[in-house]
């Protein structure tokens, strides 16, 4: 009996020790989460205090306007600040391409070497996704989309973009917020992202018809899969007709999802940079610096995401089952 009691007490003590360590670890995790939540609450309360302070009342409305302001008109065409940025980025890309190919050398160097590296890297990447044959047909679109989107995103981070323009001064005559900037990040305008998505949708439809034909295109979406026979085949036809309807709805919404994904990320980034710049006016040149580095990464990632998604959508409609199995290299 004494041995049983001692063994029982040992088991209980081991169990208690394990429970003690478990609760200690839980408390540590909760304390970390509580610390993070407390920091977030302090930041929120500090921002609310700054916003409620009369000295900062003039800085309350610092958000980026969703609609790009119109700068001037060319006949019936209104020209917004995001359109001007689009033209500037286009001219910049064309100029770099012309300078890189002005005097081509067999052994590239300098700017030619850099541009050839970008072109070759994009081609190798797209061939790994689409295969060599499909890449040869669609490379012009995907490479141009990636370079243009990334250049546009990074151009929006240059000093002066969004910070030079017109605004309404306060009662003391000081201007704290630019409500009508001369330049604005182009992808923070839904018109541009939607236009690029619609252009892709038109190109996607053309590639799909060229690869499958009209009948093959409809069969690709509504046709039954598998080798079923009899009543099961009839049932599968009905099922895949319903699936095809859902697929058509998904296809029609792709331009919307592509445009809002790119627009939302870039617009949120620019709004965050402006908010950080106005959080503490005395430290305005310093606080946004870490966020600028993050936006450089976001600009690259969003260009890659747009290119990769459009490439995968094209692969899904242009592939022919086993025929694509040996295409990628």
Topology:
Layout: H1 2-52, E1 70-74, E2 77-80, H2 81-100, H3 110-130, H4 132-155, E3 165-166, E4 180-181, H5 190-222, H6 231-279, H7 289-318
Antiparallel strand pairs: 1-2, 3-4
Your description of this structure?
A hairpin with a 2-residue loop joins strand 1 (70-74) and strand 2. Helix 2 (81-100) crosses helix 4 (132-155). By secondary structure, this protein is mainly α. The protein has one domain (70-324). The protein is built from seven helices and four strands, in the order H-E-E-H-H-H-E-E-H-H-H.
Features:
mainly alpha, 4 strands, 329 residues, globular, disordered N terminus, two-stranded antiparallel ribbon
Given helix and strand content, the structural type is mainly alpha
Number of domains: 1
Major sheet strand order: 1-2
What best-fitting shape do the alpha-carbon axes yield? globular
Report the helical percentage. Answer: 55-70%
Low-confidence stretches: 1-61, 322-329
Briefly summarize what is shown.
The N and C termini lie far apart (75 Å). A hairpin with a 2-residue loop joins β1 and β2.
């Amino acid at each position: 009996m004494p041995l049983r009691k001692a063994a029982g007490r040992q088991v209980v003590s081991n169990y208690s020790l394990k429970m003690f360590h478990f609760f200690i670890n839980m408390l540590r995790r909760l304390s970390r989460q509580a610390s993070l939540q407390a920091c977030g609450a302090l930041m929120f309360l500090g921002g609310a205090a700054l916003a409620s302070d009369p000295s900062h009342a003039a800085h309350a409305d610092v958000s980026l306007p969703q609609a790009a302001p119109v700068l001037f008109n060319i006949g019936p065409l209104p020209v917004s600040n995001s359109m001007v940025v689009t033209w500037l980025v286009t001219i910049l890309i064309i100029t770099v391409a012309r300078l890189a190919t002005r005097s081509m050398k067999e052994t590239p160097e300098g700017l030619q070497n850099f541009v050839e590296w970008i072109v070759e890297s994009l081609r190798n990447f797209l061939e790994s996704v689409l295969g060599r044959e499909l890449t040869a047909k669609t490379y012009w679109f995907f490479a141009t989309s990636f370079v243009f989107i990334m250049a546009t995103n990074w151009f929006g981070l240059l000093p002066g973009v969004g910070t030079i323009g017109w605004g309404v001064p306060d009662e003391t005559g000081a201007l704290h917020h630019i409500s009508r900037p001369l330049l604005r990040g182009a992808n923070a305008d839904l018109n541009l992202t939607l236009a690029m998505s619609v252009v892709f949708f038109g190109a996607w439809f053309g590639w799909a018809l060229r690869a499958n034909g009209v009948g093959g295109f409809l069969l690709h979406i509504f046709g039954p899969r598998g080798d079923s026979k009899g009543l099961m085949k009839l049932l599968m036809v009905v099922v895949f007709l319903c699936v095809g309807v859902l697929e058509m709805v998904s296809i029609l919404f792709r331009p919307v999802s592509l445009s809002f994904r790119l627009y939302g990320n870039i617009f949120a980034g620019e709004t965050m940079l402006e908010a950080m710049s106005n959080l503490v006016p005395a430290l305005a040149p310093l606080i946004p610096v870490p966020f600028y580095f993050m936006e450089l990464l976001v600009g690259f990632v969003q260009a890659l995401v747009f290119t990769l998604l459009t490439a995968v959508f094209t692969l899904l409609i242009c592939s022919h089952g086993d025929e694509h199995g040996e295409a990628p290299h």
